[in-house]
Amino acid sequence: MLEEVERWLATRSWSVTDRPLHRIVAAKQRTGQTISVVLPALNEEETVGDIVTAIRRDLVEEVPLVDEIVVVDSGSTDRTSEVAAAAGARVVHRDEILPRIPAVPGKGEVLWRSLLVTAGDIICFIDADLREFSSDFVSGIVGPLLTDPEVALVKAMYDRPLTVSDGHALGPAAAGQGGRVTELMARPLLNMHWPQLAGFVQPLGGEYAARRGLLEQLPFPVGYGVELGMLVDALHLVGLDALAQVDVGVRKHRHQDGQALGRMAAAIYRTAQLRLARGHLVRPSLTQFERGEDGFEPRTYSVDTEERPPMVEIAEYAERKVA
Question: What is the pTM of this model?
Answer without folding.
Answer: 0.86
